[in-house]
Structure formats: structure tokens, C-alpha cells
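Q: Given only this backbone (349 positions), what sequence would you predict?
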């Protein structure tokens, strides 16, 4: 199969034009057509010689993201269910904030991490996405926003899949997103979330970027985390915390720890006290408390609102910064993986 036209970083385009005996400025022109003008065909690249357009068409293909469904929430959230060229389906979400538009992207078709509260893992992992398939999600979102003269201002890599298990594709995606000749998203406006793939936390720390890191923690100890997140059996809690300490020491940057609160499971005062004890040695730690989304196939219930605030107060009493995530798109099944799960169920009938 030919690579996707979005698969290459700017540096790879520079190498490609050089290899094909073309002047260096052609790389900038190609990037401009893809990410500034956001064309959808090679024919639209009108300032490129016909021979170059034909060569591009011969060697590359545009990503096919066919819109299966689009849902718009009363709060402005837009959720897409896209069909890929191989008929697999992925989700992408645009979230509207007071500070701009954020896009949540997917990095894999399905997920093998197996978190027991998440819809993304239903059906397991099918395959990794190519860099271009991740990039195309942001391009599609930006094309929608173009119609209202708005732009993508931030990105969260928190959709379906584990980004750190598709590491190289994720890094190519990031290089394209932050490049000044591309979409030019500020590094500090991008967050990548991992379930705790320890070797790649170290690797990411050594990348020397300003991109934000979030860790799905969801429990304050080994035993409970292994029940909620089977990945903890591969990368134990203590090893993950040690990798996080390395990250903060190496980069000087804050880590956000995502903690989904599940009624009667991990939301008791003793859990908050234990989590504070773990994180007190990490002054740059920040906890994002997430009221768990209801997933039909899962048995977890939402923590009562007053208990969420109680959990936050205990953390802050122990000098651990904590915020409560604002809910968005709850009326359109915007929890990660829910639309895809429904699509798989209906396709199997």
C-alpha cells in the first residue's frame, strides 16, 4: 500500500524532494498545501509542476476518513465516527472551551490495555493507526472549523488506544502538529495521555519537548490498580511512579494524573489519603478528578458529587493540587469508545 500523504514530517518531505532531485522549497510548498490550504486532492496543488503532482499521486494517497456519524452536543461538543479505508471505525471529538477549540484524537483501532471501566477496550486492539490517519483527524476538524473562521487551538491525544504503544506514529503526528509551516499548534497546548507504558515514559522524557504529559492512574496502589487496569501487571505501580519522577526531574514539567472516580471502588477518603501520600514527593503533580462515564457494558457507578468534592479537599489538604474535569458531550455518548462500540454492535447484527 502507498503511504498516506500526511505520513511524512516536514524533515521527511525535505529528504523526499532532495532524493527526487527537486529544489528544497518544494517541501514547504507541499506542506503549505496540506496544512495551511488544506486541499483534498493532488490536482489542487496548482503551483506545483504537473510532473510533481503526478509523482505525488503515483507514490502517495490521501487518507480516507468517511463520516459514518456526527453528533453535536448542546454544549458545542462535536463527535465524529469515521470509517477508515479498511472499514474499521475510529472516533474524533471537537470540544469547545472559553480559550478555544480542542481536538481529541485516536491513535489505534481499538485498545488492548483492558481498563475495566472503559468502552475503548471492548473488542480489543485491531491495529495501530498510521501517522497520516492520526493527522487527518485534526485536518478534518480544522476543515469543519474553517467554515466558521475558527481554528484548532489545542490537542489532546486521549481518544481510543494507547498512544505510547504506537509511539513512532504519535511522534510523527506531534512533529507535524507543532511545525511552524504546518498547523503550528503550540507545544504547551498539546497533551498526550498514557496508561503507564513505563519504557516510553522515559523515552518521552528524553525527547526534550514542551508537550504535556498525562498519566491515567485511577488508583493509589498496586492491588487496586491491577484490578482496574491490567496494564499495571506489566508495569507495576512503583515502576510507573519512578518513571514519572524521572520525567519531572528531567523536564521540569508538571504531570497531570487522571483519576476516574468510581462509586464505592476508588473514591473513599482512605483512597484520597493514600494517593496524596504517593504524590507528595512530586511537587509538580496535578490530579484531574474525572466522574466516571456510564458505559452500558461496565458495572461502575458514578461517585456522588459531594464525595467528589470531599476527595478533592483531602488531596488539597495534603498539598496536592486537584481539579475536577468539566463534563462535555454527555448527551451524545462522548465518552471514549462509546460510539465505536455501538457501531460494532449494530454491524454485527
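A: Predicted residues:
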Amino acid at each position: 500500500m502507498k503511504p498516506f500523504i500526511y505520513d511524512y514530517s516536514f524533515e521527511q518531505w525535505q529528504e523526499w524532494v532532495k532524493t527526487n532531485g527537486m529544489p528544497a522549497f518544494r517541501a514547504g510548498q507541499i506542506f503549505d498545501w496540506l496544512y495551511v490550504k488544506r486541499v483534498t486532492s493532488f490536482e489542487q496543488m496548482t503551483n506545483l509542476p504537473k510532473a510533481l503532482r503526478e509523482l505525488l499521486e503515483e507514490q502517495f494517497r490521501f487518507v480516507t476518513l468517511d463520516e459514518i456519524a456526527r453528533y453535536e452536543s448542546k454544549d458545542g461538543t462535536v463527535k465524529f465516527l469515521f470509517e477508515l479505508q479498511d472499514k474499521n471505525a475510529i472516533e474524533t471529538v471537537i470540544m469547545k472551551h472559553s480559550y478555544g477549540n480542542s481536538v481529541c484524537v485516536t491513535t489505534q483501532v481499538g485498545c488492548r490495555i483492558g481498563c475495566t471501566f472503559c468502552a475503548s477496550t471492548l473488542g480489543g486492539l485491531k491495529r495501530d493507526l498510521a501517522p497520516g490517519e492520526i493527522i487527518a483527524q485534526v485536518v478534518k476538524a480544522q476543515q469543519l472549523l474553517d467554515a466558521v473562521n475558527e481554528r484548532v487551538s489545542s490537542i489532546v491525544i486521549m481518544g481510543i488506544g494507547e498512544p505510547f504503544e504506537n509511539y513512532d506514529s504519535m511522534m510523527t503526528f506531534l512533529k507535524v502538529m507543532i511545525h511552524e509551516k504546518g498547523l503550528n499548534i503550540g507545544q504547551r497546548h498539546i497533551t498526550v495521555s498514557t496508561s503507564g507504558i513505563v519504557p516510553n515514559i522515559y523515552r518521552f522524557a528524553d525527547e526534550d519537548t514542551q508537550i504535556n504529559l498525562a498519566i491515567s492512574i485511577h488508583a493509589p496502589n498496586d492491588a487496586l490498580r491491577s484490578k482496574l487496569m491490567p496494564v499495571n501487571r506489566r508495569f507495576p505501580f512503583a515502576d510507573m511512579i519512578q518513571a514519572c519522577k524521572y520525567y519531572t526531574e528531567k523536564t521540569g514539567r508538571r504531570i497531570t494524573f487522571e483519576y476516574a472516580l468510581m462509586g464505592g471502588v476508588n473514591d473513599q477518603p482512605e483512597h484520597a489519603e493514600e494517593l496524596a501520600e504517593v504524590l507528595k514527593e512530586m511537587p509538580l503533580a496535578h490530579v484531574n478528578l474525572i466522574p466516571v462515564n456510564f458505559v452500558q457494558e461496565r458495572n461502575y457507578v458514578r461517585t456522588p458529587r459531594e464525595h467528589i468534592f470531599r476527595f478533592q479537599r483531602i488531596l488539597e489538604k495534603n498539598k496536592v493540587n486537584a481539579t475536577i474535569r468539566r463534563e462535555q458531550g454527555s448527551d451524545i455518548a462522548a465518552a471514549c469508545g462509546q460510539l465505536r462500540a455501538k457501531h460494532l454492535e449494530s454491524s454485527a447484527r
